[in-house]
Amino acid sequence: MEINFEALFLSKIDKEIKIEPKDWMPEKYRQTNIRQISQHAHSEIVGMLPEGAWITRAPSLKRKAILLAKVQDEAGHGLYLYSAAETLNISRDEMTEQLLTGKAKYSSIFNYPSLTWADMGAIGWLVDGAAILNQVMLCRTSYGPYARAMVRICKEESFHQRQGFEILLVLSQGTEEQKAMCQDAINRWWWPSLMMFGPTDSESTNSDQSMKWKIKRKTNDELRQQFVDMAVQQIKVLNMTLPDADLKWNEERKHHDFGAINWDEFWQVVKGNGPCNKERLDARNKAWNDGAWVREAAVAYAEKKKKREQIKVA
Amino acid sequence: MIKKYYYGDYGEIEGGVSSNKSETEFPLWEVFIRSKQGLDHKHVGSLHAADVAMAMENARDVYTRRMEGVSIWVVESKHIHASNPDEAESLYEPATDKIYRHPTFYNLPDEVGHM
Fold this sequence. Notes:
The structure holds two protein chains of two kinds.
Chain A: H1 5-14, H2 27-46, H3 48-52, H4 61-86, H5 92-100, H6 118-138, H7 144-172, H8 176-195, H9 207-212, H10 220-238, E1 248-250, E2 255-257, H11 263-273, H12 277-290, H13 292-313
Antiparallel strand pairs in A: 1-2
Chain B: E1 28-34, E2 41-48, H1 52-63, E3 71-76, H2 88-96
Antiparallel strand pairs in B: 1-2, 1-3
């Protein structure tokens, strides 16, 4: 009997049965997941750079230890995600190469510089906060290995957002200079954080199919709105302001209206013209090239050991 | 025409997979963790490592940063053989019609009590 693989696949999606690596899947589903999961992994890896820059300059030993732990988490999250992508038949090396040559994208937010210590707070609160909304949704994504990676990531991520908010909270209760630094960081990171959710729904090319296949569960605009509504409440605790004159409660929609996003800036940064695109790629390339001898030595050592064991057995 | 794909989640790569890796890419390992004494080891994910010592250290760093485990197993992915989901129906068929293997199949009077 001929099995209709596509119908079987769609019925699983319909019944909320996860798709697993050895199951049949449409080629486009596989490609979309590879693209999304690897971009997500690259974002975790490149995301270590703006924060890594502050590890040596953290204001206290406590803050330094926390930041180290957070950056180590990002590395771990990248690894979970690379593993998930590899189950779709793409090698780790291939993904690395796509990142290093600029063929693959990563979240544009990391192409902005981290200028002051307050940026560590703003990144934790806003950037990780935006990422968490997306990641919580992805815990229910239809591809099994991706969903499992996201569950693990979400468990660890809330510490990131809380430590960021706490940094801002301490600054917001500090000297006039510290307060100004806090507000300045919020001003600079607010709009790029809103852009993290991607183009508006009418412009988003991959959204429709991804919703049908339950790779995504909410649209870019839905998540963005959720984020704005949340931030409006939380900023009050900081006694700071969000840099948007058009931000106000809309009683009819039961949501906050917000100002127009500068999509021209968004596309400029995506296309490689952001403030740090080149710096980030250079840093990743340098790390990869400088580490080549270590990788080669590890392989040579493993082979030598294997041979010795074979001789012993013989 | 519908094309069939097999992807190696856990080792045993059939039907042509991943040829595009360099010679220096470390082999893939699957990681299993016992979360506490008395429980089974459970698959938690995979990682790349040159040898077993590196696999063990990487597994500790990647999968147990928050005391998630008291024991780690690592096994090279190529040593794991997986069943084929397309053959699931015939593979598990012998179990489906033997409902007398379940305790609820037997109607006993209430007086018997918990059994």
